[in-house]
Amino acid sequence: MRAIDQLPNFQVSPFGTNADSFLFDLVKLDGRTDVPRPFLHRHSYYHLLWISEARGQHLLDFETLEVRPRSVFFISPGQMHAWGSEIPPSGYVLNLSAEFFMQIYHRQDDIPFFGIANAHPALYLSVEQHEACLPLLAEIEREYAHRDAWSQDAIRSCVLMLLTRLRRLLPEGSGEQAAPKHYSLARRLKLLIEQHYLDFRSVKDYANELLVTERRLNEAVRTATGKTVIALMQERILLEAKRLLTQSDLDIAQVSYRLNFEDPAYFSRFFKKHTAVTPLEFKRTFSGPVY
Length: 291
Known about the structure:
By secondary structure, the protein is an alpha+beta fold. It folds into two domains: 4-170, Jelly Rolls, CATH 2.60.120.280; 179-286, Orthogonal Bundle (Arc Repressor Mutant, subunit A), CATH 1.10.10. 45% of the residues lie in helices and 16% in strands.
């Protein structure tokens, strides 16, 4: 039986570094034959994909995003993704270890774009926005190639400036800017759902763990994300169902039991209600090559 963790998982950046030294890696896309990667895979590090020129699609945890000129994608550790382009791509890939992030952000909550609470996995830049950031990327590229005693400091400073500029481009009223007093609770809930989506089955379970009332939790989450707690719980179950259906040899009944559904028929109805296709139809669609 093929296990879920047999999906290709890059533990360190494959572009010339090793596990002992990997903090940061930069790859220029122009002229490479090993990028894009059209097969589903995941990384154990943060992955920023800066597209200057490309046209295609990016499948990120089964959400299809358009790849077009001046796109920026943010992939967190453990997320499944694949992408393809109809034309030779140009741009950059920035691979960042968790340790690298800890050196520029003191708290996980401060990390923009990446993480379980990220509602903006892609940014589409105007010509002016794209051109304004290119000097920073070029400086990172120069420092990465130079690699003297001060290069890591320079790279950290440039990456922080790049992410700060991109953060300013988030849509008005999104994320932490929309509801700063509720954002922290919503993020804590999402992290808790990631830990307990298989064993916590009610809003009350999460409210008790977070030491708040169910009403307060629902209000905070709705204000910060526009969704209910139940919706977030269901989304995480559906994501795991999709991963198991496409990346393992488990049959539909086995997947339903793995997700703590007592009745496979109920699991199938639940899945179709939220995806508009049956589990078997979904499995057939995504089990093969993506592009």
